[in-house]
Write a structure and sequence with these properties.
- The chain is an alpha/beta fold and 388 residues long.
- It has eleven helices and 19 strands.
- The chain folds into three domains: 262 residues, Metallo-dependent phosphatases (Purple Acid Phosphatase, chain A, domain 2); 71 residues; 43 residues.
- 30% of the residues lie in helices and 23% in strands.
- Helix 1 runs parallel beside helix 2 and helix 10 crosses helix 11.
- The chain is globular.
């Protein structure tokens, strides 16, 4: 069976205030055309279809167009909700849409209920594991303590139990939206840390032939059987070195996996430039970045006049400007944004406690309370999305 694995469309998201809807529509057309040309048997979409729980109307219209294009092409599609999606909203009409060959899997209670497709070698069971927010799904999955590993293991136990009751030789694919240990992150993924832990180990997915993962925006192979497709478009300058792509996965009669990486169309390349304003304006080697989306870090000791306007004369698509003067260690004063760069909410909260107490950070009990409070806030956000 041939599977086209994609994820993290984030329909409705912009890139530094530049609308990406046109590029997202172009990707959807490319996806459908690729599925046709490569004779894919199924398209697997591993979550974060939308960028937020209540997407803008234009994003909803684009999703509707995607469903129609896939259905008209006669390409079965299995799709799960991610941590950016509202599972309830994405799953509306799933029973009816199912009849058109578009299988939306957004319910944590249905992790062990596969979409079964067949090829000339027999059945392939596709199990959709939507994003599982631990505090909200632990009771549904029979887990005592909320945590990403615990709820994913419980969901995978349901998958393995169902698979064990199927005919010998039934092959299996799991779609999941999670952060797996050893994978590389970028700045554009939303933090899903619970109790100080975000990642789950690879062995959670033992027992299935292929795990089609979503959540992280870089395309990557953790094992030949466990892969992230990554986002088809860039959503932060931290993705400047990414090669945006999808996986074309072949599952043979014995469940062995082979995969080819297929490039996605990207509207513009990304470039991150650093130096003084005069250096950047004069450096001939940078001429190739004239058509790129550009992030500039200026190292001038004194902020120059009209830097953005002057940069845009040479690099018309400069979108982000950061000031980081080259100074000695004694003089170094990083901006607030730079101090927070690469730090999660938990680390920021702990650092704040240390800052206001003259360098004395939280003790073990205080740290536990901070983590509990942060988890409660995120859980409240998800509950709000569910009940809106």
């Amino acid at each position: 069976m041939r599977i086209l694995h994609t994820s993290d469309w984030h329909l409705g998201r912009s890139f530094h205030r530049v609308s990406m809807l046109g590029a997202q529509a172009g990707f959807i057309s490319h996806l459908v055309e690729t599925a046709r040309e490569r004779e894919a048997d199924v398209v697997a979409v591993a979550g974060d279809v939308y960028d937020r729980a209540v997407p803008p109307l234009a994003a909803v219209e684009l999703f509707d167009s995607a469903l129609h294009q896939l259905a008209e092409a006669g390409i079965p599609t299995v799709m799960i909700s991610g941590n950016h999606d509202s599972a309830r909203r994405l799953g509306v009409g799933a029973g009816l849409i199912d009849r058109a060959g578009i299988h939306l899997r957004t319910s944590p209670a249905a992790c062990g209920e596969p979409v079964v497709l067949a090829d000339r070698h027999g059945d392939v069971a596709f199990y959709g594991l939507p994003y599982l927010e631990p505090a909200l799904v632990k009771d549904v999955l029979g887990v005592e303590r909320a945590g990403h590993e615990a709820v994913l293991r419980a969901a995978m136990d349901q998958v393995r139990a169902d698979l064990a009751g199927r005919a010998p030789g039934t092959r299996s694919v799991v779609l999941a939206h999670a952060f797996v240990t050893g994978a590389a992150v970028s700045d554009s993924e939303r933090d899903i840390t619970v109790g100080g832990v975000a990642a789950v180990p690879l062995d959670v997915f033992d027992g299935v032939d292929y795990a089609a993962l979503g959540h992280l925006h870089g395309c990557q192979t953790l094992t030949p059987r466990i892969r992230y497709a990554g986002s088809p478009l860039p959503y932060s300058f931290s993705e400047a070195d990414h090669r945006k792509s999808m996986w074309l996965v072949d599952l043979d009669a014995e469940g062995e996996v082979s995969a080819a990486r297929l490039d996605c169309p990207v509207p513009r390349p990304l470039a991150r430039l650093r130096g003084t304003l005069e250096e950047l304006l004069a450096d001939e080697s940078l001429a190739g970045h004239a058509d790129a989306w550009v992030e500039v870090t200026l190292t001038d000791a004194v902020r120059p006049a009209d830097p953005m306007a002057r940069l845009q004369e040479r690099f018309p698509h400069t979108l982000s400007l950061v000031f980081a003067p080259d100074r000695s260690e004694e003089e170094a004063l990083d901006s607030y944004a730079r101090r927070l760069s690469g730090r999660d909410d938990r680390q920021i909260a702990e650092d704040f406690v240390g800052h206001v107490r003259g360098g004395v950070g939280p003790d073990t009990a205080e740290r536990a309370l901070l983590h509990e409070a942060l988890d409660a806030v995120r859980t409240a956000d998800h509950l709000g999305e569910v009940h809106r």
